[in-house]
Write a structure and sequence with these properties.
By secondary structure, this protein is an alpha/beta fold. It is 46% helix and 15% strand. β5, α4 and β6 form a beta-alpha-beta unit. α3 runs parallel beside α4. The chain starts with a strand and ends in a 7-residue tail after the last strand.
């Protein structure tokens, strides 16, 4: 029987690359998202709806043990604390943090029963450093890093591993949307901004979603059975500066 991997937010960007790579390595992959990305088995799911996440994952667990959870669903939001409204803060946390909480809580009974499982949370280099105008996003990604560590400690006795992947600047639709929004506000030229972003990285380029997917696959594999509670940085050297 194929191993089962559940991915939240697997229809675009890093999530889509993860879905494709796990399928290529003979996993059965179920994608929980608001739109169908065209790869894997699709389940319409709003990760901010706790009961919906619970119901979908519990139904999956009735017929198949859950080997891997990749909690990837998230949004980006740029603003300082002074300019972040309560509603905006709640939106970022509902998607980025509450979505992960709901999914992890739902997969744990299956993983505990089989005494095995890998949970990978999509955090950010902003779990280690701060960037300008990133109050709510930074806060949410730091929370995910904490969630990985506490889950790793609490469930190590069941051989359940939890790790956070911390990407730097990755060229995804989310990245391009953030750049577009910045250019609309500032009047900057997108090509110039893109070049400036690449130049800030020691490797002088942006990361690609496929590179992050490879790290996620490794953390889910038997090659990483002694890695848990870690923050795995994949940022082209940005946080080493």
């Amino acid at each position: 029987m194929k191993k089962l991997c559940i991915v939240t937010g697997g229809s675009s960007g890093i999530g889509l690359s993860i879905v494709k790579l796990f399928i290529a390595h003979d996993y059965r992959v179920i994608n929980l998202d608001l739109v169908d990305g065209g790869h894997g088995e699709f389940q319409l799911c709003d990760v901010t709806n706790h009961q919906q996440v619970q119901d979908i994952i519990h139904e999956i667990a009735q017929s198949h043990s859950i080997d891997v959870l990749v909690s990837n669903a998230g949004i980006h939001f740029s603003s300082s604390i002074e300019n972040t409204s309560e509603a905006e803060l709640e939106q970022v946390f509902n998607i980025n943090v509450k979505g992960a909480y709901s999914a992890i809580q739902a997969v744990l009974p299956s993983m505990k029963q089989q005494k095995n499982g890998a949970i990978i949370l999509m955090s950010s280099d902003q779990a280690l450093i701060a960037k300008p105008n990133s109050f709510a996003y930074n806060l949410s990604k730091s929370a995910l890093a904490s969630m990985a560590k506490t889950t790793a400690i609490d469930y190590a006795e069941y051989n359940i591993r939890a790790n956070a992947v911390c990407p730097g600047t990755i060229e995804t639709p989310l990245y391009h949307q953030a750049i577009d929004n910045y250019c609309q506000r500032s009047g900057a030229d997108k090509a110039s901004v893109h070049q400036e972003e690449a130049a800030q990285q020691p490797l002088n380029r942006l990361g690609q979603p496929e590179e992050v997917a490879e790290l996620v696959l490794f953390l889910a594999s038997d090659k990483a059975t002694f890695i848990t509670g870690s923050l795995q940085v994949i940022d082209g050297g940005y946080t080493a500066q």
